[in-house]
Cytokinin riboside 5'-monophosphate phosphoribohydrolase
Amino acid sequence: MNITVYLGANEGNDPFFKEAVRELGAWIGTNGNTLVYGGSKSGLMGELAESVLQAGGKVIGVEPQFFIDAGFVYDEITKLITTKDMSERKAKMIELGDAFIAFPGGTGTLEEITEVMSKVSLKHLDAPCILYNLNGYYDSLKQLLEHMIEMDLSSREKQEGIYFAENLEKIQKCLAK
């Protein structure tokens, strides 16, 4: 299975994120899955890719040329796909993915996973969309989705396939659905 993971190129200030991202990467690698991610060697992105590779897994990086030019590429990954811009990168990462996980990240992570959420809710994408809700990171987004339902601007049916998981065990259960 190709698992597309969206996450930050920074480490953040919660040391648990680094531990959890390495655990996720080790699980992806040891279970014969392939990581699809943004291609960077820095921050949480680099930690994730490295842990997948160390566990014997494959890693596909999808990176726009301007990030490669800036020196962010992780040379040791299995395959690098170069795109002209961020829009092409997002489309390629969705095309390659069989499942999608948003690890805690910044505005780029949010933009990428909300596009997946939209495609899942429109039934244009039949794949699990998982928000890795470490230490309540995505609680506000979860509340917003509930509020959309309460305001009759969304529905439980439209949000089927969008999951919040607090740990790796719950991610595994979502992927098995």
Summary: The chain has a mean pLDDT of 96.
